[in-house]
Specification:
The model has no long low-confidence stretch (mean pLDDT 98). The strands form two sheets. This protein has an eight-stranded parallel beta sheet with strand order 3-4-5-6-7-8-9-10, covered by helices on one side. A two-stranded antiparallel sheet has the order 1-2. β7, α5 and β8 form a beta-alpha-beta unit. The chain is α/β, with parallel strands linked by helices. It is globular and about 55 Å long. It has eleven helices and ten strands. The chain binds NADP nicotinamide-adenine-dinucleotide phosphate (NAP). NADP nicotinamide-adenine-dinucleotide phosphate binds next to α10.
Length: 327
C-alpha cells in the first residue's frame, strides 16, 4: 500500500482507502458480520482511512467502525459527514447549533473525544455562500471537537467555491472514468491550495467493475433500484448519473483496452490514482473480497499513454455530453 498526504490535514493516508456507506444501509442487506469483516480486512491490508457519515444506516456505519476499531490497536483516521440529518435539508440548517449537535452524536457513535475530519454532506449550494457555516466549523475546531473539516460536493463549482475558505482541508468529489471534469480546473487549484481530494464513486456504483449487466437485479432497498433517476437524492450519486444502457456499452469498450490479468475494478481505480492531485480513492465494499481486491490497485503499474488516450476518447465520445455540464 502506498500512502499520500491528505492536504492540510497532513494525515498520511492509504491511497486506496475505504468507503463505508455499504455497511450502513442503502445497498441491500449487508450483515453485521460481513460489515465487520470488511473493516477488519481493510485494516489488515494497510488501509488507515475510512469515510463514513452520520446518516449511513442512521449511525450504523459509524458504530460498526467504532466497534471494530475498539478490537485493534491500529491507528485509523475516520472522516464522517454532517448535515443530512436536517429535515428539511436547507442551507440555514447548517448553523452552529445543529452542526454541534451532529458532531456530538458522531463523537458518541465513533467513541471518540475528537473527530479527525468532518465533511459537510453535500449541502445545498447556498451553504457555500454563507461564511457563517465555515465560521461554525472553525469554532468546533477551536473547541477541540474536530481536528479538521472539509466538504463533500456534488458539483465542481461547489468545490471551487468551498476552497476559497482557508479552513477547508479536504474536498470529497465524484471522479472516475465516467466523470472526468474535476481534473480540468479543480484539481490544479486544489493542489495549489494544499486541499486534500477524496474520490468517491471510483467504480461508478459498481459499473466500472465490469460485473453489472442488464440482467443484474438489485434489492429494493439498494439505491441502484430506487435512485436511478434521482428519486431520493442527487442522480449523480447512483451510477455516476450516466444512463444505464449507455454505461453498459461504455464498459464493453473499456474491456477492450483492459490489460491481461488486471480486473476492471483495479484498472478503474488505477486510472484515478494516476492523477497526482488525488489523495485517496474510497471505494465502497460489501464484503472482504472486494476490499482485498481493491487494495491491489495500489501496486499496479501506471496506465500507458495509449490506455489513457483510449479512456479520454471514450469519455469524449460516449459520456461527456451526458454529465460534463451537470456536475
Ligand atoms: N454524498 C457523499 O458524500 C457520498 C455519496 C456516495 C458515496 N460516498 C462515499 O463514497 C464511497 C464510495 O462510493 P460508492 O460506494 O457509492 O460507489 P463505488 O465505490 O463506486 O461502488 C461501490 C460498489 O462497487 C462494487 N465493488 C466494489 N469493489 C468491487 C470489486 N473489487 N469487484 C467488483 N465490484 C466491486 C460493489 O458493488 P455490489 O454492492 O454490487 O457488490 C460496491 O457496493 C461510499 O462508500 C461512501 O463512503 C459519499
Amino acid at each position: 500500500m502506498q500512502y499520500r498526504k491528505l492536504g492540510k490535514t497532513n494525515f498520511n493516508v492509504s491511497e486506496v482507502s475505504l468507503g463505508t456507506w455499504q455497511i450502513g444501509a442503502s445497498w441491500g442487506n449487508v450483515s453485521d458480520q460481513d460489515a465487520e469483516r470488511v473493516v477488519h480486512a481493510a485494516i489488515e491490508k494497510g488501509i488507515n482511512f475510512f469515510d463514513t457519515a452520520d446518516v449511513y444506516g442512521d449511525g450504523r456505519s459509524e458504530r460498526l467502525i467504532a466497534k471494530v476499531l475498539s478490537e485493534t490497536s491500529e491507528q485509523v483516521f475516520v472522516a464522517t459527514k454532517a448535515g443530512r440529518r436536517l429535515q428539511p435539508h436547507t442551507a440555514e440548517g447548517y448553523n452552529h447549533e445543529n452542526l454541534s449537535a451532529f458532531v456530538e452524536r458522531s463523537l458518541k457513535n465513533l467513541r471518540r473525544e475528537t473527530l479527525d475530519l468532518v465533511q459537510l454532506h453535500c449541502p445545498p449550494v447556498e451553504a457555500y455562500y454563507r461564511p457563517e457555516v465555515f465560521a461554525a466549523l472553525d469554532e468546533l475546531k477551536l473547541a477541540g471537537k474536530i481536528r479538521h473539516y472539509g466538504v463533500s460536493v456534488e458539483k465542481v463549482e461547489e468545490a471551487l467555491k468551498a476552497i476559497e475558505y482557508p479552513g477547508v482541508a479536504t474536498v470529497q468529489i465524484i471522479f472516475n472514468i465516467f466523470r472526468q471534469r474535476p481534473k480540468d480546473l479543480f484539481f490544479p487549484l486544489a493542489q495549489q491550495r494544499d486541499v486534500g481530494i477524496l474520490v468517491r464513486l471510483p467504480l461508478a456504483s459498481g459499473l466500472l467493475s465490469g460485473k453489472i449487466s442488464r440482467q443484474t437485479s438489485f434489492a429494493p432497498d439498494d439505491h441502484r433500484s430506487y435512485n436511478r433517476n434521482g428519486e431520493q437524492f442527487d442522480r449523480g450519486e447512483t451510477f455516476s448519473g450516466v444512463d444505464f444502457d449507455v454505461a453498459l456499452e461504455a464498459v464493453e469498450e473499456i474491456r477492450r483496452v483492459l490489460p491481461d490479468g488486471t480486473t476492471m475494478a483495479n484498472f478503474a481505480l488505477r486510472w484515478i490514482l494516476d492523477h497526482e492531485a488525488v489523495s485517496c480513492v474510497i471505494p465502497g465494499a460489501r464484503n472482504e473480497q472486494q476490499v482485498i481486491q481493491n487494495v491491489m490497485a495500489s501496486a499496479l503499474p501506471h496506465l500507458t499513454a495509449g490506455q489513457m488516450g483510449a479512456l479520454a476518447k471514450l469519455y469524449d465520445t460516449r459520456i461527456r455530453s451526458l454529465v460534463h455540464q451537470r456536475w
